[in-house]
Amino acid sequence: MDWDPRRALVGQYPDGVVDMVLDPNDPWGFACVSRQINLGVDPQRALADYETTHGPAVAWVVRVCLENYTLAVKGLLPGASDLLEDLQRAGLTLWGLAATTRQLTESASKVLSPLSALKDILISSEEHLDLSDPLFYRLALRRFAISPGHTIFVDADPEHVAVADRLGMDGIVAHDIRGLRQLLRQRGIAC
């Protein structure tokens, strides 16, 4: 998925304010609020915690960002839709792990319609688990009734791929669809 949280705020606040709110080096910043919500914390509670360190005015900007968060979802990476179709035609069953909420998944469903190719998705906020937690992957294997030795896990984050590898899956770090296709072909998958 291709997303950029700046898109939820652009045009509503000056760039400096957006930069401050989305500062990845702020340990209690937007990334922290987003992570809490993705782990199932009530958004109002996460915003209240944020307000204690950043004040009500800045918290309001984060509230606006969360309310407009579907604008942050650009869509799938170029070529992803075609790859999903090719993998289905090749006879693979596709599953998903998502670090998000059901609400965001559903509100962005038009933009992300090719993800309907996934048989099911395990969503972090519903399981109260993070993608860096091996339990999330074990739970997916059990819920989806799949064997780790017959599973390829793809993610752009090497940490997530390392967790999948440790659990016996074949992990692939992929940053673009062209490179992912090549790595899948090397594993004998016609795509």
Could you characterize the architecture of this molecule?
The chain is mainly α and 191 residues long. It has 2 domains: 71 residues, no CATH class; 111 residues, HAD superfamily/HAD-like (Rossmann fold, 3-Layer(aba) Sandwich), CATH 3.40.50.1000. The protein is 47% helix and 11% strand. It is built from 10 helices and 6 strands. The strands form 3 sheets. It has a two-stranded antiparallel sheet with strand order 1-2. A two-stranded parallel sheet has the order 3-4. Helix 6 links the parallel strand 3 and strand 4. Helix 2 packs antiparallel against helix 3 and helix 3 runs antiparallel to helix 4. The chain is globular and about 55 Å long.
